[in-house]
Amino acid sequence: MAEKIRLNKFISDSGICSRREADKLIEQGHIVVNGKRAKLGDQVSIKDKVTMNGNLIAAKTGEDFAFLAFNKPVGIISTTEIGVKDSIVDYIGYHERIFPVGRLDKESQGLIFMTNNGDMVNKILRAGNNHEKEYLVTVNKPLTDEFILKMGSGVPILGEMTKKCKVVKDSVFSFRIVLVQGLNRQIRRMCEHFDYEVVKLERIRIMSISLKGLPVGEWRQLEPNEIKEIMSAIEHSTSTEEGSINRGKRPEERSKEQEVRSKNAERGTQNAESGTRNSSNFSNVKPSKKTARSSNPNPKSRDLRERSSNSNGKKTGSTKNIKPSTTSFGSRGNSKSGKR
After folding, report:
1. CATH fit for domain 5-60, picks 3.40.50.970, 3.30.465.10, 3.10.290.10, 3.30.70.260
2. Catalytic residue list contains 303
3. In 3D, which of 46, 55, 62 has the Cα closest to residue 5?
């Protein structure tokens, strides 16, 4: 029996629009399922005939999902919101709808994943799944051993204590830090707590994928072996925090917190649209058809890339006298793609 999913997810997975926009199309009567006008909350399978204004919406298969690694320059905004100046989707100009896996501040640069697979997004991002993100951080004054120790021991920000993490001094002014959380401007806030200011922040690794060989402002399709490695890592991950957060809480507390998290997730981009299918359903995920970066026909994207690379008369993301290495510390440094 073919698995059923919510209609708005089916439409979103096809690459036409976000789930929120799909709900609007359904409400306005533009969507028909098997000859009948669709309703909000309907569920469909790949065997159902779904049309929008008479045009067939093709179901996505595992091999259709896009998964890109992008070296985001400073100044580009990690949003899919239409009309936002210097947005990441305009910069990349991909031929179908994709969204970022999490965010990087406008002032930050480095590795960010772009995909159209919302289920994988959530399993990568959830702090409870302990998937690593590594950063190279440059600050405005010499580092001390005390700073390094306290940064790794947990820092009070945003009303909570950050998780313990690995922090290693890289030079007089720079250090590497590995996080599994993704709190708002987390590293900058952690540094500010100790009266340090971040001069440059670069994400150099996500899980087993690094920036190695990927210039600032460029993107590439993940290779099949890289996707297979990611899929293996998230195989037992959950797409929600419910399993770890809700233990020991009353039902009314769970319901209220879940509602807040849902609103925050929706407000946070339409980037990581939540999914409920098990990761096993994506065991055959492969890169979609290769698209050459240089052949991108989107003039808006080309213009944005040129402005970004030429800003201030130098290549975006460069910092005087700073030569960071993109080789991660730890046991993960031997991956073909490198570590973040």
Report:
1. 3.10.290.10
2. no
3. 46
